[in-house]
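Q: Hi! First time doing this. I have a protein sequence and I read that you can turn it into a structure. Is that right? Here it is:
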Amino acid sequence: MMLLNSVAEVRLKEKQEYIKVAQQQTDSNKTTLKDQKRSIEEDNPEKPEPQNVENVNESSVTEKSITETGSEEAGNIRVLLMTTDYQSYFHPQVTALRDGKEIICDFESMSVSEEPMVIPAHKNGIQLTSLERQCGNPVYQGTIEIQRTDQGFTVINELPLETYLEAVVPSEMPSTYQKEALKAQAVCARTYAWKQMQEGRLSKYGADVDDSVNFQVYQNISPQQKTSEAVRETEGKILCQNGEPVQAYYFSTSSGATSTDEIWGAEEPAPYLKSVDCRFDAEEPWSRWETEILWETLESRAREIQGDSGKLLGVSVSRVNQSGAVTGLQINTETGDFLVETEYEIRQFLSPEGSMITEKDGTQVQGGKLLPSAYFEISAKPGESVILTGGGYGHGVGMSQTGADQMAEQGYTCQEILEYFFKNIEILQIGS
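A: Yes, that's right. Below is the predicted 3D structure, encoded as structure tokens:
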């Protein structure tokens, strides 16, 4: 079972307010699965032959070069939809509405050996009533493919890349942001998606990406006019270096500087990533923060790692990178010392869950499963608590979203924003 990276819980809280889909659910008679299949096939006699997800081989993923396809031929992206709580790829059952007809897939009506059920695309979309997102029961463009497995049902949404992006950008960046920032976000999101389509990380499921922060959040918030315009105005454009797409990382708010992929253990930073000063988001609430964690909480976590009951003696920063992000955390205990390394593990060990975080503007929020960022200083009061004073929200690599918004407000263009956060890149058209 694939579990969502714990950062999902805190990242989803960053997204804009709930947008409820005003969708009237149509009551209709429930039919058997075979009748549903027959009804759908009669409405769409030219539906494509379904792919057996269980038998997909990683080597079957088609490799595309930028020069082989135009923006219109960029192809479809296959999105593996996670459960309501983003904890699994396997759904206990699937219910959907298409053109007023209810479709139900459960363990009684569909066997493991059956071919996937493909619900063809409809101009009004397909609503999955068994799923909950910030927008309510999400409505998907493109086809929905449902496969029964021993663990449950996998659900894949296949649709054009550009249509997919219209439901990614508002889920990753508030639609209230400046237009040039939204365009920069669209280019980053397209680049990331295009690269994932080449790499085939989820090929064993027959998919390119999932719909969570494991990849990019998709259809958590429905397409909005401003974000859809940003996607259309940048259609087919991706970030490249030497003709190859880059990993176009982005994050919420900086602490005054961006970082590189060295925080994840890379021996050398990717050539297109650079640490840059970022003062554009200096007035954002998350640019500075403080939290206090009880000593006994950290002692309990240290004991879990070491597998003993030794007392915690000390917690200190042992290493920082060029931009100031902590990349080594020294833990001293009665039974021995150990080092916590890489950005994610450090933020997880110092999780402020159960504590309050005070933002720059004085706002207090409940801490989550990850420390807001790896940019912090420690003030330890042994036996009592640890005070963490830091800045920024997110991993800090690539483009700061709030920084991009402020840059756009000051007149920077989409291209100028991207060239500021990434090094020696060019914006190419897929197919150029």
